[in-house]
Amino acid sequence: MAADGGTGDGATQQMWARGRYEAVGERIAGVAAELVATVDDLRPLQGRDVIDLACGTGSVALAAARVGARVTGVDITADLLGLAAAKADVAQSEPITWVRADASATGLPDDSADVILSSMGIIFVEPESQVAEIARLLRADGTLGFTSWVRAAHNPFYDPIVSVLGRPRPAGADHSPDDWGVPDTIHARLAGDFDTVEIDHRVHTWRFGTLETALHFISEESPMHVDVLHRVSEMQHDRLMSAFEVALAPHTDADGAIAFDSPYVVVTARRR
Question: pTM of the prediction?
Answer without folding.
Answer: 0.93
